[in-house]
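Now for one protein, fold included:
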Amino acid sequence: MLRAMKRVTWLLALPIAAATLLLAACDRTPRAASTATSAAPTAATAATLKIASAEPVVTRTPIARPVSTVTAIGEAAMPRARFVVQRRSDLWIVSPASPARTRLVVSSEGEVEYGGTTRKGDLYYAVRETGQAQQDGRFAVYRVSLEGGPPVRLFDVEATFFWLTVSSDGSRLAYAVNSRERGLAEVYMQALPGGAPARLLSHDISKCFATPRSFGACLSYATDSWSADGRYLAVRSNAYEWSEVGFLDTAASDSAIIRPSTSAGRVMPAGRVRWHPTLPIACATLANDGPSWGAFVFDLRTRDVWSLDLGVPVGDASVNDCAWSPTGDLSYSKSAKSADQQSLLLFGADYEARTIGPLPGRNRFALPGWLPDGTGMALAQYADVPRPPFSVLGRSGTLAPLNLDADTILDILPE
C-alpha cells in the first residue's frame, strides 16, 4: 500500500458539508498567526505574472490550447536514471541504461510503506509484521543502502495505519501513527541517526468508534513529503473520502499546521504534494477549485498562495499530478475521457504556459516525476492490465516507451 492517497476505510463516511468543519478541531496546537495568505495578483496585473528567477509562475487565466504535438517513437527510452519501483510488496531499483545496477532492495510478503530516499544513498521503508487491515499491528521501520547490503532495523511502531517520509539530506524522519486501539492520530519527527521522537501533532479519535460517535474525531494524519531544505513537512488530514493538506515548520517554536487556502476555500489536493528542487515552494492539484480543475502553488517563505486555473472542466477530465523539473519548471498531467484531450500542461523555463498533447490512450495518466537531467518526464498510464505502460515524454513532445516491470514508480534518482 502506498502512502500517497490511501483510503482510511475504518473512518465514517462524512457529508461534505460536515467534513469541511472538521479541521477547526483537528489538532491541539494553537494556530500560527502566519497562516494568513497575502493578496494574490489579479487578472488586471497580467495574464501571466513572472515573479523572480527560479520561482513559480502565477496565472489567472485558463491554459491555452495545445501548441506542442506529441510524436511517438518506437525505440524504447534509455534514460540515465534509476527508478525506485514497486512490484507487489517488493521494492526494486531499476536502471534501464545500466541493467547490471538493477537490484531487489526490499522483499516482503506483507504491507510495505515507502519512506523515500536520501542524497546519502539510503532508502527508508516500513513493513507491517503483525495485525490485519483496519486493526493495530506492528510496523518495523528499516533503512537500507541503495547499493545493496542487509537492511538495518531502526524501531517498531504499533499502529492501524502508518506513514513515513525521510528528508532528502537524511537528517530527519517524520511519521504518522494512527491507532484505533489507543484512539490517537499523531505525527512524530526524529533526528537521524538515533534521535528521540518528538510529537508534533496529536488528535483524539477515540470518540469516532464510541456510541454516539463524534464526527470531529474521525480523522487521521499522513506525512506526505519534505521541502528540499528539510525545514517544512507536508501533512495530510484525512477523513474517509476527504483530505486536506497543511504544512509544519519544524524550525518554529510551536507545531501549528500552516493551512493555505484558495479562492475556493480549503486546499484539498487530488495528488501528492511536490516540492521545488531548491526552494520551499510546494505544488499540488486541487479537487475542489470551483467548476474547473485547478492547482495551487504555495511559497512557505512568504506564505503566499496562488490558484492556477488549468482550464479543465470537472467531469470532463482530471488533473492528476504536478512535478518540478531539476531547474524549477512546473508540469501537470491531464487525463480525459476523450483520447484527443489527454495532455500534459507545462510551465517552461520562460514561465509561459503551454500544453503538450494529445497523449495516446483513454486511461488515467500519472506523472511520477522528471528525469534527473531535465530532458523529459516519466508517465504512467493506469488501466485494467497487470502492469501499467510507462513512457518518457520529452520537452519537445517526443514520446518513447519505458520498459519497466513494475506496478508503480515511487521515485526517480540520478544514475
Q: What stands out?
A: The two ends are 26 Å apart (CA to CA).
